[in-house]
Amino acid sequence: MQKFIIKRLIQSIVILFFVAFIIYAIIRCLPTSFVEAMARQKSMQPGSKSYQEWLDQLNQMYGLDGGIIPGFFHWLGRAVRLDFGDSWKWTVPVVDKFKDVIWISFIMGAVSFFFETIIAIPLGIISATKQYSKTDYAVSVIALAGISLPTFFFASLLKLVFAVKLGWFELGGLVGRSYQQLSPVGQFFDKAHHLVLPIVTLVVLNMGSLMRYTRTNMLEVLNADYIRTARAKGLSEHKVIYYHAFRNTLIPLVTIIGGSLPGLFSGALITETLYSISGIGFVSYTSMVSGDIPFFMFYTVFLAVLTLLGNLIADILYAVVDPRVRVS
Amino acid sequence: MAKKENTAPVNNNDTEYSLNDDRRVRVLSPGMLVAKRFLRNRLAVTGMIILIAMFIFSFIGGLISPYKQDQKFYRTDVQIKDYAGVIFNQEFRYTVADKEVYDGLAQANTVLALQRNETSFESDGTNFTIEKIDDITYTISADGKVVAITSKDVVSSSTSNDYFDFDFTYAALMATANGEKSFECEGKTYTVDKDNSIFDESGEEYAYVSQYIVRAVMGDVFLSRDFKNKLIDAVEAKEKSFVYTDEEGNEAEYILSFDASKNQWDIKQETDTTIFDTYSRPSKKHWLGTDRNGMDMLTRLMYGGRVSLIIGFIVVFIESFIGVIFGGISGYFGGKVDNLMMRIVDVFYCIPSMPIIIIIGAAMDAANLDASKRMLMLMIVLGLTGWPGIARLVRGQILSLREQEFMTATEACGISIPRRIFKHLVPNVMPQLIVSMTMGLGTTIIIEATLSFLGLGVRFPFASWGNIINDVNNVFVLTHYWNIWIPAGVLLLLTVLAFNIVGDGLRDAFDPKMKR
Prior knowledge:
heterodimer; A: globular; B: alpha+beta; five-stranded antiparallel sheet; 15 strands; 49% helix
């Protein structure tokens, strides 16, 4: 087990190395005039560094004056020490900005993930046990509609109904106008109130795939021989499904849920942008749209780390949960 | 369908065939079995119908629609525009003789002298004398020579917007102030009537003297004397509006308002102006109204569907092309080659497409590249980041397929390796590939629409369902113009949903283990 984990870990690091290299190469492929234009534009901002200072900083940071490979190692050398340079957009170190905004994204992700799980898994199981019934069709259509709904359209609909027509929520933002005057408890509820619509959006859009996944796996288990045996023994249907079948469905479910845990930190780029909640998704979107290369480098590497971590956790969990895997 | 002809009508011809005759059995090819299973799935058939409708709507609809994708529509609207201004002059206006020195300081000193009722003053070392002509007209002389005339009356031309020179102004003002009936200037004789209108020798009205100044707002508009007189009458009567009929019989209404800050009456006219027909309501001419650029919404939707579908197909084609080659080679060779190639797949799997598109988009913005280049970039980036999923699928299938007997047979026949992979292995992966491509189409269309919505994908002048919905960023459109964004969203949802349902139905249909 230990050997397996170490092997996978080393593999992940090697993959990360190449991912970072490709991302660096993409940046180097951007026309240099763009970098110069950006530096010039940034230097125009009030209280900013001078044009030459920005340019020097970029060259120093990314080794832009050298070749691609030495430049990459130059950047990597600083990146492993978590020095990703100053963001062009926010004029603070990228890592500082990241620390400011990551928690709201995580809270949003975690709450919506919790609701997704408790809604999707029971529905998926019900739909599998009553295959081809009306319930199954309804659940399938809801799940597929959730997968097919474009985030921005669904968010616009929610805004129209709940923010504009009913006036229950606000159109966007994380805090209300009177936030500063509220007590700490009031501030908490103010933020929670603003997070309702984004979380609903995330839950509806993301639960579909988990629902489908649960259904497929439950169906597979229900067709297995040991379920037939259990039924032949004369066990009640309830016991067959929730004792024998469900426990076996848990193997793939635990794996996929464990694997998606790191993704909670990745932030919801589109949803946060639509509701203007300054989590990591919205912040990186605004910085990248204005051509903030340091932030882009950081965010892409960060996303790659999360993906690799997710795969790693899924693999390890699979080995832990399913005894059959451990042998090999 | 060709197979069906072999199937004899069993009921009628029972007697003709022996019991073990093959013709008694309905023979169906595997493809037909799949089609049969697919058609039995009502949900999947509905999805298929929606898709066909969508294709007809986007590809044929654009041809039928009477409008073009970027045809703009106009409407006329009544707008109130400033037409003229009327000032009752309360200040002394100075007209200075040619080549004489009478500057601003001297003017100021003149005013001071007039207030003190003095008849002479000194300014900048020169002595000036003021001579009163009437209550509102004075002449200023230096060394016995008139250098300027000042008056609250203004001499205006009756035939043009031009101003007169000093000699004429002086002569005209002197004549009106002294109540003379005629005066001479530069060898010509002019007559003055009781309204202070000045006529030249031919009897035509040439100029007039009045305390009212009427000027048109637009420099190229000339106001006739008749119009000015009626306007002044209306101003004096403190009317809110007046109607004027010109010589050609055109009637126009003017609205009068007094602007205290400028001490002036503003004359406004209602005119018909042609403007873009933006955000019009659904009508017979435009079934879904028009968008913010005054383009027909329905036509935009048709062309938008075309763009969304074409982009979807191209991206999925790129993905599958790379994925099949990569997965096929990796799966066939297995072992070390497979291990290495799969690590490459892992690397590409980790590269997020969204940030890359955003940052390249920002660089393209800086370089001012046009919309079609952006569309190309979008397809390439989506294609290049989307293939790892397909490569993994193909590789997984081929890994198990290559152990089967038919592969031993191909080896025994001495068929070349590329042929073995792409002629014998890949076709066996086709069912799974088709399913994943169908689902992939839906996903790609959503990603494209999302990017276009954010302004990073397809851009104006091209239409895309995503950039049509982009208008909801304007809260006023979100709340008041449902006809702008709801149809595009519904079409998008239906299309993606249909692709997913059909993909799902195909998966079930391809799976021979499926129990119905």
